[in-house]
């Protein structure tokens, strides 16, 4: 097949990990006979430096006409002034919104060889296989009004948590559809004991569930979900939740896998075009050292093949290759317990995955 993939390396370790994922996609293209065309564009801090805009019009136009987008990470201390009007993160939020990518899929699996790297006891995390579906274009991140003002003797700031019925329904429906391909259990996370938006969320989730009699729905409050993730993560299958809760819970869940550097994500809308990115950030503290873990981005490339290009066999091949190199002991520094263990570089790990794809 022929496809165009826009690469948005972004900031910090973004370019280093995207380079490895591109190499893996090129290996797949050669092995399976596909014609993948890549086009690199600016986003985030790199785009602010070059154009003053975290999401330049040329980048957005390229993404709109591509089959899929693979992103590294945005942000860094250089652009972190809290008073700055233009921030790298605005580029990421704007592209999610502009492409209508309302569902962010974040699978969390524990590789047996990495169970010891997690601070949690191995027996608690063995066999964990959770699919998070985080609502991505609503809630506190986009609610209106948002402002700051001077009141009397101090400052006041307002953000708004709002959801419409349609916004909730479409993402919860996707959660049920995906649960059908898994263990058929959906846990919907909210704070319905306090928040009106959560009570609407719960109501809609229950309505959607009526159309999926073969899938079970349970509701859980976000605080107790946070605890269950570290005490009994194996009891989850699909978790669906609003934007901010999902942001927080998925970083917590990354601890189960051993490292934030391992986890991929797919942001999807109604069409097949998606945005794929590791869930980690730009990690400015290790940028440029060649030690970032490329696996989150490589697994994001696998999700890209599966969800946007429908190349299921190819996606499976990448996931298998990653499991193989992890089992064989290939480790960047984020996935070893102590400094006496041998580690390899970002590009060596990328090369190991490519060579595992060759057989
Ligand atoms: C994520 C990140 C982003 C988010 C930031 C960088 C805006 O934390 O993708 O989880 O909060 O969505
Ligand atoms: Mg986050």
Secondary-structure topology with pairs:
Elements: E1 2-10, H1 14-32, E2 35-40, H2 44-51, H3 57-65, E3 68-73, H4 88-98, E4 103-109, H5 122-125, E5 129-135, E6 147-151, E7 154-158, H6 165-179, E8 185-190, H7 196-210, E9 216-221, H8 222-231, E10 238-241, H9 243-257, E11 264-268, E12 274-278, H10 295-307, H11 312-327, H12 346-357
Parallel strand pairs: 1-2, 1-3, 3-12, 5-10, 8-9, 8-10
Antiparallel strand pairs: 4-5, 4-11, 6-7, 11-12
The protein binds 3-isopropylmalic acid (IPM) and magnesium ion.
Question: What is shown here, in short?
Answer:
The chain has twelve helices and twelve strands. With 359 residues, it is α/β, with parallel strands linked by helices.
Tell me the β content: 15-25%
CATH homology group of the largest domain: Isopropylmalate Dehydrogenase
CATH domain class name of the largest domain? Alpha Beta
CATH architecture name of the largest domain: 3-Layer(aba) Sandwich
Bound small-molecule species: 3-isopropylmalic acid, magnesium ion
Tally of contiguous helical segments:
12
Any idea what the shape is?
Answer: globular
Number of strands: 12
The class by helix and strand makeup works out as alpha/beta
Order of helices and strands: EHEHHEHEHEEEHEHEHEHEEHHH
The overall pLDDT, averaged over residues, is 96
The biggest beta sheet is recorded as: 10 strands, mixed
> Which range best describes the helical content: under 10%, 10-25%, 25-40%, 40-55%, 55-70% or over 70%?
40-55%
Termini separation comes to: 22 Å
CATH topology group of the largest domain: Isopropylmalate Dehydrogenase
Runs in which pLDDT lies below 50 for 5 or more consecutive residues are: none
Rg, rounded, reads: 20 Å
Query: Domains counted in the coordinates: how many?
Result: 2
What's the arrangement of strands in the largest beta sheet? 2-1-3-12-11-4-5-10-8-9
């Amino acid at each position: 097949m022929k496809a165009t993939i826009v690469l948005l390396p972004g900031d910090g370790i973004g370019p280093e990990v995207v380079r490895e994922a591109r190499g893996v996609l090129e290996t797949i293209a050669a092995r399976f006979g596909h014609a993948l065309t890549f086009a690199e564009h600016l986003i985030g801090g790199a785009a602010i430096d070059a154009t003053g805009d975290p999401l330049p019009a040329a980048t957005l136009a390229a993404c709109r006409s591509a089959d899929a987008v693979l992103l590294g990470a945005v942000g860094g201390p250089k652009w972190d002034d809290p008073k700055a009007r233009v921030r790298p993160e605005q580029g990421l939020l704007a592209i999610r919104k502009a492409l209508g990518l309302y569902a962010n899929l974040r699978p969390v699996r524990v590789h047996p060889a990495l169970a010891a790297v997690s601070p949690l006891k191995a027996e608690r995390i063995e066999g964990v296989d959770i699919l998070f579906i985080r609502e991505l274009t609503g809630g506190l991140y986009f609610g209106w009004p948002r402002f700051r003002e001077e009141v009397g003797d101090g400052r006041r700031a307002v953000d708004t948590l709002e959801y419409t019925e349609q916004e909730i329904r479409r993402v919860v429906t996707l959660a049920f559809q995906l649960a059908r391909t898994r263990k058929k259990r959906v846990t919907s996370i909210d704070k319905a004991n306090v928040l009106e938006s959560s009570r609407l969320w719960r109501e809609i989730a229950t309505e959607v569930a009526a159309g999926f009699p073969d899938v079970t729905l349970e509701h859980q409050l976000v605080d107790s979900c946070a605890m269950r993730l570290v005490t009994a993560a194996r009891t989850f299958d699909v978790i669906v939740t609003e934007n901010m809760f999902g942001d927080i819970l998925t970083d917590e869940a990354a601890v189960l896998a051993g490292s934030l550097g391992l986890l991929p994500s797919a942001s999807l809308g109604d069409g097949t075009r998606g945005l794929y990115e590791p869930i980690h950030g730009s990690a400015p503290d290790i940028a440029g050292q060649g030690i970032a873990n490329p696996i989150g981005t490589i697994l994001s490339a696998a999700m890209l093949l599966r969800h946007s290009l429908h190349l299921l066999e190819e996606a499976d091949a990448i996931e298998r290759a990653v499991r193989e190199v992890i089992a064989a002991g290939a480790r960047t520094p984020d996935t070893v317990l102590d400094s006496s263990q041998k580690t390899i570089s970002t590009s060596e790990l990328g090369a190991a995955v490519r060579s595992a794809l060759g057989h």
